[in-house]
Design goal:
alpha/beta; seven-stranded mixed sheet
């Protein structure tokens, strides 16, 4: 869960297994975690800093990785051997006593939102108007999805920042110096429409809102496909997070990915390590005809 208290902010991972708790309690592994909290490092770097053999450090690093406390972020080949760089899997770790469904009741907020709420800027959640508007005379039908996201944001950040929900047809504020969360594709949201051609992954409105990735060169035409991306605000300074789908089911898939895979969606695109932009697709896992899960396509 992303949390803030006394100006301490970060993504906290809940430890739910005895193995991970034991791993955290080991003094040497705890020291490795401290070093990785300063900066990502290779095993040989950790060995040098700890004045220990690389083989011993690798043993403990391997255990930390298996228990989910650290993750691999880069691998390079050096003289025929793969060197792996590691980082913490979260900014902190916690143990929650009580009902286990607390995690289901309060979904995790993806770290991509840190880019918006850690800066001294206003944050606007821009929704599409429910009235016919724009060149396609479309109506916004995804407000119930945006409400889920707004609830989680409110639970995490509370009144600690300026956060306002506005309709795309009722904008009176200057958005050029703001951080934006934009909900819905260019056919329904006029803000999305205005920045669509500047996005690394965009909608081709001339081809039924087909999703086109400038990063992979691929196109996605399934109705259940959506986009989650974090970009510089094309209208000025600040950041913009787009949560949108080819159709409503795609927008739902984008939101589900944010809530169900918060860490994965915060990683760079597999085709461009500098860009956080993903194509996702909705999944009907229980066969009831409704999208209830999602997968990341790129």
């Amino acid at each position: 869960m992303y949390s803030s208290r006394n100006n301490l902010k970060g993504y906290t991972k809940i430890l739910d297994s005895l193995d991970s708790i034991k791993a955290l309690a080991n003094p040497l592994r705890y020291k490795i975690l401290e070093l990785l909290s300063e900066a990502p490092r290779y095993s040989n770097e950790l060995a040098d800093l700890l004045n220990l053999s690389e083989q011993l450090v690798y043993y403990h690093v391997s255990h930390l990785r298996k228990t989910g406390l650290i993750r691999e972020i880069e691998s390079i080949k050096i003289r025929g051997t793969m060197a792996i760089r590691y980082a913490l899997s979260a900014d902190g770790f916690s143990i929650v006593f009580g009902e286990k469904d607390i995690v289901k009741k309060y979904p995790l907020l993806s770290p991509i939102f840190k880019h918006l709420f850690e800066k001294d800027k206003k944050v606007y959640l821009v929704l599409s108007s429910p009235e016919p508007h724009g060149p396609f005379r479309s109506r916004g039908r995804d407000h119930y999805l945006a409400a889920q996201l707004a609830y989680v944001i409110g639970a995490v950040f509370g009144a600690s920042t300026y956060f306002k929900v506005i309709l795309d047809t009722d904008i009176r504020e200057d958005l050029t110096n703001a951080n934006l969360i934009v909900f819905g594709g260019p056919a329904v949201n006029m803000v999305t429409s205005s920045v669509n051609d500047k996005l690394p992954i965009y909608f081709d409105v001339k081809r039924d809102n087909m999703i086109v990735s400038r990063l992979s060169g691929k196109t996605y035409s399934e109705d259940g496909c959506g986009i989650v991306e974090l970009v510089d605000n094309p209208m000025g300074s600040g950041k913009l997070i787009l949560i949108a789908g080819k159709h409503l089911s795609g927008t739902k898939a984008a939101l589900l990915t944010l809530l169900n895979m918060p860490m994965e969606i915060a990683q760079p695109n597999s085709y461009d390590e500098k860009t956080i932009a993903h194509v996702v697709e909705g999944v009907d896992s229980d066969g009831d005809g409704e999208v209830d899960d999602a997968i990341i396509l790129e």
